[in-house]
């Protein structure tokens, strides 16, 4: 049964972006909107697997920034469900975004953990992504921020291995934090927030594996005070 469950989760992670309400990679540069440019890099958590476009945290962050009188465009997003650090590296290189973003976010690693990929590999590839993120922000480190990996062990699909998943997620997050400290990039811990889903099912998306728009807003509430002055 455990093997069947893992297979089902893996298929959900890889194929979910084609389901209704899961629009997949939203990268569409060239907006004529006025305001600062924001690029969000990541995986299912950034693209908003199983939530509407309006409920994705990058979209909610722009809305919250506008509420505090910051002029920000709709976000450009390079993210797809199932991506590892390697997938994201390839996709950023392929997309060739401009190096003039006023804000760049990075949130990646859950699929490295889920697929059992090594910590050493993650460190190397995360470091490369962080370097690319800084370059995309025009070399301005203060315009880059990283969100920690949420703990999917807090979802019903992680129930049978909750402690092991949490331990592994913590190990990957420790690497990300360390690399951020080296580059003086702000690291924002939203992992503890994701664990609130253990006691509040409204924080879960309909697939019971990802998170709802309500959870995405909680992440934004944690991010906003730390980055609003950087726009």
Question: In brief, what are we looking at here?
Answer:
With 231 residues, the chain is α/β, with parallel strands linked by helices. It has helices at residues 2-15, 44-47, 57-67, 85-95, 110-114, 119-136, 162-183, 191-194, 213-227, and strands spanning 38-42, 76-79, 103-107, 144-147, 186-188. Helix 4 runs parallel beside helix 6 and helix 6 packs across helix 7 (162-183).
Tell me what you see in this structure.
Helix 3 (57-67) crosses helix 9 (213-227), helix 4 (85-95) packs parallel to helix 6 (119-136) and helix 6 crosses helix 7 (162-183). Strands 2-1-3-4-5 form a five-stranded parallel beta sheet, with helices on both faces. The protein is globular, with a radius of gyration of 16 Å. Helices cover 45% and strands 9% of the residues. The longest helix has 22 residues, at 162-183. The protein has 231 residues and is of the alpha/beta class.
Radius of gyration over all CA atoms, rounded: 16 Å
In terms of per-residue confidence, which ranges show pLDDT below 50 for 5 or more consecutive residues?
1-23
Distance between the termini: 49 Å
User: H/E order of the elements?
Assistant: HEHHEHEHHEHEHH
Instruction: Tell me the number of helical segments per DSSP (H or I, 4 or more residues long).
Output: 9
How much of the polypeptide forms β-strand, as a percent range? 5-15%
Total number of beta strands: 5
Give the fraction of residues assigned to helices: 40-55%
Note the overall shape.
globular
What structural class should be given to the helix and strand makeup? alpha/beta
Widest beta sheet: strand line-up: 2-1-3-4-5
Mean pLDDT: 90
Oligomeric state of the chains present here: single chain
Largest sheet: 5 strands, parallel
């Amino acid at each position: 049964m455990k093997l069947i469950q893992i297979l089902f989760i893996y298929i959900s992670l890889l194929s979910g972006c084609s389901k209704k309400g899961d629009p997949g990679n939203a990268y569409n540069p060239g907006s004529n909107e006025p305001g600062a440019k924001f690029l969000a890099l990541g995986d299912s958590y950034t693209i908003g697997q199983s939530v509407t476009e309006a409920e994705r945290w990058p979209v909610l962050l722009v809305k919250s920034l506008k509420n505090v009188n910051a002029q920000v465009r709709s976000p450009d997003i390079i993210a797809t469900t199932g991506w590892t650090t390697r997938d994201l590296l390839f996709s950023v290189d392929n997309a060739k975004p401009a190096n003039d973003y006023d804000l760049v976010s990075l949130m990646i690693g859950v699929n490295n953990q889920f697929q059992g990929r090594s910590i050493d590999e993650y460190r190397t590839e995360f470091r490369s992504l962080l370097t690319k993120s800084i370059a995309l922000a025009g070399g301005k480190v203060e315009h880059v921020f990283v969100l920690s990996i949420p703990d999917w062990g807090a979802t019903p699909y992680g129930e049978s291995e909750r402690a092991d998943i949490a331990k592994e997620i913590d190990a990957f997050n420790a690497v990300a934090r360390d690399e951020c400290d080296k580059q003086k990039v702000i690291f924002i811990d939203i992992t503890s927030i994701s664990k609130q889903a253990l006691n509040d099912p409204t924080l879960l998306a309909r697939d019971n594996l990802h998170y709802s728009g309500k959870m995405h807003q909680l992440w934004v509430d944690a991010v906003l005070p730390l980055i609003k002055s950087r726009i």
